Automatic annotation (TrEMBL):
The keyword Plastid does not apply. This is PTS beta-glucoside transporter subunit EIIBCA. SUPFAM superfamilies: Duplicated hybrid motif, Glucose permease domain IIB. The keyword Cell membrane applies. Keywords: Cell membrane, Kinase, Membrane, Phosphotransferase system, Sugar transport, Transferase, Transmembrane, Transmembrane helix, Transport. It is found in: Cell membrane. Its main location: membrane. It comes from Cryobacterium mannosilyticum. Pfam families: PTS_EIIA_1, PTS_EIIB, PTS_EIIC. Residues 154-527 form the PTS EIIC type-1 domain. The active site is at 60 (phosphocysteine intermediate). Residues 38-121 form the PTS EIIB type-1 domain. One of its GO terms (cellular component) is plasma membrane.
Amino acid sequence: MIREDLQDLLSRPLRFARVVPGGIPRSTSTSRENQVASKPAADIIESMGGAANIVGLTHCATRLRFQLKDASGIDQKAVEAIPVVLGGVAQTGDRYQVVIGGAVETVYNDIMALPALKKMHSGDSHSGDAADIKAAERAKGPRGKFAGLDTFFEILSDSFRPILGALLGASLFITFMALMATLGVIPAWNAPGVTLDPSWQFVNLMWQGVFVFLPLMVAYNASKRLGADPWVGFAIMAVVMLPGFTALGQTDGAETVFGGKASVVQIFGLPLTVTDYSSQVFPPLLMAVVLGLLTKYLKKIIPSSVQLIFVPFLSMLIMIPLTAFLIGPMGVYGGAALGNFLKSINDFSPFIFAVVIPLAYPFMVPLGLHWPLNAIMLLNIQSLGFDFIQGPMGAWNFACFGATAGVLFLSIREKDRQMKQTATGALAAGLLGGISEPSLYGIHLRFKRIYPRMLVGCLVGGVIIGLGGGVKTSAFVFTSLLTIPAFDNIPLYAGAVAAAFFTAMILVILSGYQTPEQKAEVAAQVAADEAAASEKAADSAHVAAPVAAAAMAGAGAGAGTATAVATVLATVGSPVAGIVIPLSDVPDPVFSKGIVGLGVGVDPTEDTVYAPGAGKVVVAQATGHAFGLLLDNGVELLIHVGIDTVNLAGKGFTVKVAAGDRVEAGTPLVTFDRKVIEEAGYSLVTPVLVTNPKKFGSVDQAAFGQVSVGSPLITVAAK
């Protein structure tokens, strides 16, 4: 059937394409290693320009993160046409993100298992992990106007990204404990002085392990991201978390400070601040920054032959005291000061955060600005015992999910199968996991009408929380349906997020999310799908008829004649008068090599292109340079008027039909001005191609020399 990405294929110069069995070509790179592969992993790699264009690849909870040699040729629409892809996000510095959703790890593993990737990264020039590769690429030079800020948030992202799964799992344990306390099964599990039954204590330990040792996880990730040995960073942070280190603050002569949360003891005459570093995130981040700089310096001055020994040793020798005496306390006090400042704002008026946070988050997430807030949430829980940001954040999340639900409703009503699939996955990831990226990148940023409606939902949810006096939680959780019991005022929070959800959903349903042009594209695609389904049902009849005729002819004319009759399925007439040239002589390698489809070229002698048979117009480019037809006999036909004529932007073309139109043989499709095209330096040779050749036994040239409109041009034979 006609593929939904035909629109993308025809809307730009056809430089990179491959034949997908049974359909119109899909955009890819020049690499032919995975040309016939149908797996999403292979399609994604080809859409990135092939394995040779990939410098590094990592993934987060929902996205594949590519570092490319050259990202200028990536077509975002073509990337998003791949079934498992929810969205594509171009970034500075030849970086590109592909949004997958919850299945990202599976797709990532499939990509890394591709032979092309293994071959590409097996040599010395590609050795090392993704962080090393990306670091080398960044060292080549500036990456954009805001490269420094972009790198800062990327470091924060890479420091937390690998542990998001553990945080999500721990948040569900916390929610379960909160629910049990709400139902009266156990006492308030997080209240001071409360002792739980050993069985429930064990359940409580299941989440505490993640948050108590969070500094070690962050230290490892941040150190690795900044080019230092991650295990050295881990070891440095581990020192200040040892029970023996904590015991130093309990020795005689220790002075209690920081409201009793820390103590100061003299070590070699220097004051050492001893505090509980559990769940802290700012100290390991600061430590990793200094360690990264120190590591680079040591590698410059120490001979490479002994770096393995002395770089780790000197790093630990310098960084352990520096972290214990200076960096650690700076991180604790600085983070506490920031948390207390925000708390004072929230104490003054919870309404401020309740409204500002939901309205700001839709713009912060795409820019990566939400990562510092995540760190502050963790800090609030550690220093204050609760957090006041996650409640308002839930209003944003559920408004986001509500908008997605509205899109899902409309996609079902409009029979838009691709959007239905995208919205279903995004909604599941949001409601069950609290993850907004699949909705945000896969849908909302692609359709500008959604954001204003979603912001109304954010505002409604935030106002309800603000009027109710705010919502707090004593644990870091992902705001989903499953974590509602983790908030201290469940009725208020549940009512607010429900209002945000249904407000956004209803507004999207009532107003729609597509422009008129986008609606027309979807309608054309639905019509093409329905026509293809009808053609599929009739395929057996189309094939059976010539076979039966062949059998009858064979009785009187012999087996050879019967075979010839049996294989003839359809004949495509010429859409334009002109001179036929073999496909191999078409002056464009993508066409001449048969990558797009099989057929011939016609050098026009007249200025009107006609439909060669009865069928439906699937794509009619506004520029007039290309048309996709689904003929009644099952042939998918591409008529490309001239070579690279898309660059004329419609100049010299007068389009006669629109997508979705029914045409008969001889219906005018477009007229063109030969003089305009030739003066612009473009060839008029018009490829006429069958783009679903795998469906047939063969596609052959049926004419030579001069042809008139409707004269037999291509013969299509049954399998």
